[in-house]
Amino acid sequence: MKPCGAPSLPQPVVDLKNQELVAIFKDLQQLSNVLNTGTASHRRLSTTELQNRICSVPYRLLRMQGNLDNILAECLRLAMLAFLATTCLSPVPGTEVRYPYLARCFRECCDPLETSTPHLRDLMLWLLTVGAISLFGATEPWLRERWQAEVPSRMTWDEARQRLKDIMWINAIHDQPGQQAFKILNLREVAVTNGDNSIAKLWASSWAGSAYELL
Q: CA dist 160 to 117, 151, 209, 215, Å?
């Protein structure tokens, strides 16, 4: 039975043939819902329980490398690794953590992904937002180009946030950098500073406080 308030699996995820990947996606959805519910009700997971629920997921995803022949499945595998990266404390508080190999693979996979249905377009919104928060920042040229092709300019942050929550979202971690990324991605032009990743820096610098809120 689905936990109260938990989002349903997106239809493109339901349609995937790899049931282990579907199960991992569902596990992360449920964990996100538990964390959101706990923050709202001040009933938080213990550190041990959180670690037990989250630590096995990256290994399960990494074991699938090279074994998925569906481009959407591979995009989701990489996106879940990027999503998990936002839940990791930086070794040095306030510093940015980079994942260049993951970022390159994510771009190569997501860039050619076609979005022929509303469900796929919502999933692309989530993929691009996760990518902006955890891997690239919101000034990355290819991501901005894809964003402006996929996301209606009239969409508000409240609407986008609800669509993101319908897929997978941890309020205490993702709301602030997500809103900042949304704002920047919707600008027609931005000043790009070489090597700067302001969104990644934003969640890295603010995550320590959010982490303790969730424990």
A: 17, 9, 24, 27
Look up the pTM and report it: 0.84
The H-or-E segment that residue 209 falls in is helix 198-214
Provide the token pair at 175. Answer: 């709301």
Which helix (H) or strand (E) is 142 found in, with range? helix 141-150
Band of residue 1 on the pLDDT scale cut at 50, 70, 90:
very low
Show Cβ contacts of residue 103 under 8 Å, excluding neighbours closer than 6 positions: 131, 135, 136
Domain residue limits, the chain: 11-214
The tens digit of pLDDT for each residue in 41-77 reads 656 666 677 677 778 899 999 999 999 989 999 999 9
Q: Angle at CA 34, nearest 5°, toward 28 and 40? A: 135
Label residue 66 left, alpha or beta by phi (over 0 means left) and psi (-120 to 50 means alpha): left
Report, as an integer, the average pLDDT of 169-195: 85
